[in-house]
Task: structure prediction
Amino acid sequence: MDLKARVSYLQGLAAGLELPRESKESRLLNGIIEVLHDFASEWEAANRAREELEDYLENLDEDLGRLEEVVYDGEGPEDDRYIEVRCPNCGEMVCFESDLLADGEPLEVTCPECEAVVYSTGAPERGDGDALRAGDEDL
Ligand SMILES: [Zn+2]
Result:
């Protein structure tokens, strides 16, 4: 039984006593029951507010979970998978997979626009000028 129903039950019992309406006992009893009734109302309202807050937090948590999936499982690793370099010759942005670096093989990435070498792992000491010349030799 909820609080309001229990208070109503007490109210019925008090009425059953048939105390004189203006007696001290009646005023005390009705006063107590009135306070209990107010408490029950406040309690129910607080419970409803808490339930709404819990629902809201649950939704917020789900939204945050979805957001985390997008940020960490989606775009995050994708940023790691691709390396972007600007072609020193024509300024074109060139993307290639970082997996290509992981196998340890010498790697030379050429620009799709002008075919200049934009990335090379073969000889890291080479400067941009040498890399460009090496790219030209490959042509
Ligand atoms: Zn280029």
